[in-house]
Known about the structure:
Among the domains are: about 10-125, no CATH class; about 140-425 and about 640-675, Alkaline Phosphatase, subunit A, CATH 3.40.720. The protein has 23 helices and 21 strands. An 8-stranded mixed β-sheet has the order 12-13-14-19-15-16-17-18, with helices on both faces. Strands 4-21-10-3-9-7-8 form a 7-stranded mixed β-sheet, sandwiched between helices. Strands 1-2 form a two-stranded antiparallel ribbon. The chain is elongated and about 90 Å long. It is of the alpha+beta class.
Amino acid sequence: MLKHLPYPTYRQIRHVIVVWAIETIALLALEKILPGLEIQSSESAILAVALIGLLNAILRPVILYFTITITVFTLGLFSLLINVAVILLVVQIVPGFIILNNQTAILVVLGVTFINMLITQILSLDENNSYYRSVIRRLGRTQSRNNSAVEHAMLIIQFDGLSYSVLESALRAGYMPTIESLISDQHYQLKKWICGLPSQTSSSQLGIMYGDNKNVPAFRWYEKETQKLVVSNHLNDTAMIESRVDQKDSLLLHNGSSIANMFSGNAVKSAMTMSQLTSVAQISKRSNVFYNFFLNPYNYTHTVFLFIGEMFREMYQNLAKLFSHRQLSLRRSFLFALERAMAVVFARELTTHIIIEDMFSKYQTIYATYMGYDVVAHHTGIDSPAALSVMRGLDKQIQRVIKANEIISKVYTIVVLSDHGQSQGSTFRQLYGLTLDQLLKKYLQNEKSVVSSGTSDEVKGYVNSLLQEVLNPHQKVNQSVKRIYKQLQTKDGDFSYFDSASRPLPSGTDIIVCPSGNMALVYFANFPERLSLEQISKIYPHLLVNLVSHPGIAFVMLNSEEYGPILLHSNGMYFLKSQRIEGKDILSQYPSHTSAQLQKLSAFPNCGDMVIFSSYNPETKMSPAFEELIGHHGGIGGLQTEAFAFFPESLPWRPGISDAVELHKQLREWQTLIFEGQQ
């Protein structure tokens, strides 16, 4: 049952009057600077603003219903054109309100919206107050007749790629006041857990949701049996990966909702979830996701301006790095500015809206992911100003969710966690002048064809999720957009959206390199079975010696016919099965659980013939990635295996969690306590 909303009627009336006054003042101010706008009296301005609001309320839902696809595809900009049409209609009705051309009408809409947002922010002093009035309360009214019997539910929010240590530093620096206040005032606790190998989303989230992440050895891998390259963020591959796990123990199996995740957890409702976007059966269930978001005028205007602001922030920070003293630097394109704004603003705002909508709909368990930090940290560093600004925005989302939870009598127990962390360092190519596949080709004296599978750019998958979510219900539009995209796509295929298929491997490829942060799986494609240490040494006599002698390589994991998995490095060998060490103990600089995690990885049928790990400095915690990313994850060393869990003190915690599968068991235990009302 909904609590009484804390804003009484007189406050609602006051808010309407204030907004009406602001927009009237904005309209009169714009008349002074726009030559195509003429307002003959204050009464005309007051009447025009009132009629614009009334027509928006009446016409907007109808127009939006028929134009939702193009509205989403233009990130809400088409919604502004709806307002332009409304204003041009008002010009025909209100005497003394004159607009001479369409260009002026567009400028009036933008100007009034901007001034409204600016003054509202100044008056409210808090963006979330505006969000509460404009979004949460409206959702509360529209969902108030929900008859769900759910009294105790669980909300799991995942911050993609945020490590325990970086979060702790951000809390001390004041970037996340909401989470800090929950720790100090409302008895929440922050704990560290280890995600295991590989330290990346497809493996970790699968383990968290299902308690099973077997045979997911990296973000990308090659399957010799089918001669197929599997890429975790290609939608068909994501669906295939999820279909392989036992789904009986999913966290979301009973009345669950999956939002902006890689996997669905077999939830009854999925929104912006990669593994479900190829499912025709899910299309009808997803049809209202964007409509409800853009139906609220606050959402689309707020999102458009935040989107533009985030792009300018990225361009400014990209320029500022030229004058900073940060050693870690990566060239960032205009395309990245768009991707950053998509992840940090558009996907974030939409995710929060759907979370709150689903809270009012009383789903038993909701699991949602914010991927903005991971995207930005990859390109700017794990504790860069850009990454910290993303964390500040994430903190505001938690505050919004808490406000919504208060309205529904705190039905939801809120748990915040990450799936992995990130390490950082200059890239392997920056340090040594060539990529890993080029290094292998050099050591093989250019006698073999060596191909890299590409980079683990997760944001492409999330962009695909947004694009397919809106386009799938409209096959003709979908096909037309894809046709245009293929004409514009770059020759090397790096900018792969719309779930473009993986580039086929060149015929005659001998060796395939699948980089994943500072770990790379290497496959000898001409051999159907996994090659052993003995076989590789015989076929390529000097390759292993040259590899481990390189200063950028920490060690190579191989499978011995006699001894099982072995770590080969420049100063000796580590026999994982027997724990026998010859020469230097290469794992002494890594956490104690590393040996067990390497053995688990080596046992996967799809593990590489060689698994190469780049060098690691335990003092600086830096390690170079085999991809062109400053912040990276997938391997071991540094903060990439270090994740966090943030939850009420009333819930028990199992110390020493060192694998995503173990965290799943902890979450299942919490579900039992929460659903029975015992926490």
